[in-house]
Amino acid sequence: MRFEHLGVLKPFLGLSVASRGSCAEPPGWLRRSIQGVSCFFLALLILAANVRPVQAAPPPNDTCNGAEIIPSNASFPYLTAITDISEATSYQDPPTPSCVFGDVSHSIWYKFIPRDTAFYTISSCTDAPTGTSVPDTVMAIYNSTVGCAGATNELPSNGTSLGCDDDSCGPGFTQASITTQLLLGNTYFIVVWQSGTQPALPGHSAVQLRIWKALPPRNDTALGAEELFVNRPVLGTTILAKDDYELASPDCFSGVKQRPSTAIGRDVVYTFTAPAAGDYSIKADHYNNSSVYDLVLYAAASIPAGPPPVAVTDCLAAANRNPASSAEEILCLPLAVDQKIYIFVDEDQFTPQGSTFSIEVRQCVRESESNGTWIAATPLSFGMEGSIAPANDIDFYSLGLFSAGSRLFAMVDGSAANITDFQMRAISISADSTNTLEYDYGNNDDLFGGLSSNLAGTRLTEAPAFLRINHLPYTTAEPYRLYAVVQPPMSAATVETEPNDTPQQANLAGNNYFYGSLAPPVPPRILSSDADVYGFSVDTLNGVSDLIFLSLDCDPLRDNTPINGKLELLDQAGNVLVVVDDENSSSSTTATTGSLIATSPFSPGEALVYRALSNGTYYARVSISPNANAASGSGDYLLSISKNGFLGDCGCNTPPSLANLTLTPSIYQQWPATLTGNILDYDIGQTHQVIINWGDGSSATTTNLPAGVTSFSLSHTYIKSSSNLPLTVLLWDDQAGIASTNLAVTVQPEPVSPRLISITPTNGYMLLQLSGSPGVTYRVQTSPGSDLWSDYASVVADQDGLLQIEDTTSPVPSQRFYRGIWP
């Protein structure tokens, strides 16, 4: 804004300025207001009253008539001028672009008449690179034969052109880029908007376009295949790619709710070599709003030869579950060490243009079936993968024991599932009660499965805590990824310090755990305009960046005063990477005891996960959703920031691990079984908690080990015989580091007492024959005739329960007694 003086100081309202030292008489209403005020100050008051704000001028290309010209004879790549859209208007704008479902504003115009028919890429992306700082841009192209008068006909989307784009590139995939065929001599108008109607933020209001003649992706065929590495996301595109590969058979579409496809669309190729033997998950997320972009993901052991499209015949696994989802995932593909595979990002149908996406390979940590009861719960690892199969399947995950008032932050990412309706409950189990601590359904943003769930700030008790996952339509569904951390009670959170409205003012704290409040609105607004920003560091170790998990508790006091919160992740430059703004803002404090299927209490929250692409300081921004009402338009919140499942920002917490885990070789009912193990944790001085679920329906045992203790030996008596009981061991350190393992336990019936059948002199020695239980090891003891018995040998009964042993003691004792015992 600038100010303009609108007139002279005198005369004004009948007031004249007298000579120095005296004042002319002001009107009565003014005299009463300024009694005792000096003439000089009075003059300043009058001058201030005579000044009004004046709107700064819009940019030159605010309208079609002022469109910036992209020269026909430009040398490509060509960069336009950098335009500040702060004062851009929507005057004479074309209709709302077809690829946007919300509002747009602050439009600017460009004009281009190509001198060649070719495919061109027109990008507003920061990483194109351009000077664009508007974090969320929208772009459309209009073809007109009558100049500006016809600049309302959006270029259609067909086999060679694409007329509109939103959310396909740049930091967080929220900026616009179009690759399309433009014809020689045609007149094209390009319009760029800011998404939404909010004022452009200072420092984030610049737009610049980069234009170049487009080529197919380098990895359009296997000759240019791009290499992938574990936990390193890569941005990719099928724009201008060809249909080089198709699937020969639908047989590799295994798993839940797959839709077999021959993948006749555009495709690109990646390679991956397994660094170790194990299971790997491959996930591709696409960011186009249109459901026409239906990705198909598949992996093969080799590349076939022949003219395109060539059939891939040795497919290892494939994914094509839902045409409307934002992701596809190959779930837990087993690979040998150094095994090389080819990964294809393809399409179910040949699309007009192709799409943009990110792709990432992760080591798969999968739930342990069957975990349909809390007794058989799978120890939870950060990012664990699960499936709901068969129908009505329920998955339980053990969290451990925590101090009363600790806060649970958890999210189910169901974005790659065939149906995203995953419900989640936090439950507690004690000797006298089983309770639903909190319930959620459909609290996620669409990016993470709109009907999936997150719990933010659930209060835990001192009883063992678990997560319970099920699928609402009571059908099969997969995959989902489960993320959870437990923070200390809210009293340990760092209280925000104002001002913290911008990244430059961001609050930082070592615990990355914040309690804050969004100030009440200033009338006539009904929603808070406050925004709170928190900074935290992101590091790369061996090329692998941190996996960020943000979770926002929108009713931290659990007093039915929730806010409708909006949570954003910003990069080092303040660009928005991810936004989650689910509309849910209701809560209930109604407690339900004695039930694991209760639908209350519940509370609103926002959550996101994001694998950082580079080092630096990132930011979490909390504000009120534009969808809020007056009741949810201001208030307090609790924010959890974690990286790789660990708390705090010190980077000192390395995952603990279990080593040398040994269980009594043979286990029998009614006799103690002993489990021993060692703890490896390079964070010196941490305490540990070992939680064992013995798998037989008994209560889990919890053992707290003080700092410095790195081994344990724990015993348990199984009452009944059984096969393949799921014994699980969960290890926690005091910084929320976790390790777990599972063992299958077979409990044999208690052996019968051994019975002596015969003692026969043979070759000058004594041959003993006994009967007992098959496979059981018995001890044979001897005695000279007193109560002093000593072990002579151990013998294993054969499959018929018979055993024999020869006493070769020399010389032969004149008197000796024998007996068989167990154990």
What does this molecule look like?
- This protein is mainly beta and 823 residues long.
- The protein contains 2 helices and 58 strands.
- The strands form 16 sheets. The protein has a 5-stranded mixed β-sheet with strand order 3-6-11-8-9, with no helix packed on it.
- A hairpin with a 4-residue loop joins strand 51 and strand 52 (738-748).
- The longest helix is centred in the N-terminal third of the chain and has 11 residues, at 39-49.
- Mean pLDDT is 86; it is low at 1-54.
Secondary structure topology:
Blueprint: E1 2-5, H1 28-33, H2 39-49, E2 51-54, E3 68-70, E4 78-79, E5 83-84, E6 104-112, E7 118-123, E8 137-143, E9 164-166, E10 177-182, E11 188-195, E12 206-207, E13 210-213, E14 226-228, E15 234-237, E16 245-247, E17 268-273, E18 278-286, E19 295-300, E20 310-312, E21 315-319, E22 327-335, E23 340-347, E24 356-363, E25 378-379, E26 384-388, E27 395-400, E28 407-413, E29 422-430, E30 433-440, E31 454-459, E32 465-471, E33 477-487, E34 494-495, E35 513-518, E36 531-538, E37 540-541, E38 544-545, E39 547-553, E40 565-570, E41 576-580, E42 605-611, E43 616-624, E44 635-643, E45 657-663, E46 667-668, E47 672-680, E48 688-693, E49 701-705, E50 711-717, E51 722-733, E52 738-748, E53 755-762, E54 765-771, E55 777-783, E56 790-796, E57 802-807, E58 817-821
Parallel strand pairs: 3-6, 14-17, 16-20, 25-27, 34-35, 46-52
Antiparallel strand pairs: 1-2, 4-13, 5-12, 6-11, 7-10, 7-13, 8-9, 8-11, 15-24, 17-23, 18-22, 18-24, 19-21, 19-23, 26-33, 27-32, 28-31, 28-33, 29-30, 29-32, 35-44, 36-43, 37-38, 39-42, 39-44, 40-41, 40-43, 45-47, 47-50, 48-49, 48-51, 51-52, 53-54, 54-57, 55-56, 55-58
